[in-house]
Amino acid sequence: MTDVAYVSSSEYATYILKRDHTLWAVGSGDLGDGGVAAYYNPTPRKILEHVKTVSAHRSATDGSFVHVILGDDSLWGWGLNHYGVLGNGETSNDYTHSSSLAHKATPVRIAGNVRMVVQSDTSVSSLGTDGSLSGWGLGGLYTLIGQTVNPMTSPTTLGLKAHRVAHTTAG
Question: Most buried by CB count within 10 Å: which residue of 10, 109, 131, 147?
């Protein structure tokens, strides 16, 4: 594959962001193309267009999830949705096979006006284009507002503003 701008990998899949802002996936697992997680796809498949960033994460809870930010600053995600890490307001499962973990097989829109997203095993945080900080999942940034036990399944603004943030990580 040529004209590759960025690559992000999870457990069994690799996501390739090309310079023309198309996102491609190869491997197995939750590729974002609606396929069953157990199949292997050796040929890259186009998943989305107008992609600015991609971040794939292999979770210790036996699965992986992906978040992308599109050119309109909207945040999308798919894959493992354990503890609501996708941020789409639920923890439901798209697959017909029995699974104790929730998955989304195709990209779902999560939020708008997102500049950056960081992931950990059970939580996700985002930085808005206006400097606002949001968090969801179990643990992570939203512990700052006193929520420590129940997962939050959609982005919750933390009432904080970040200015001039160049980079952030989750652990």
Answer: 10
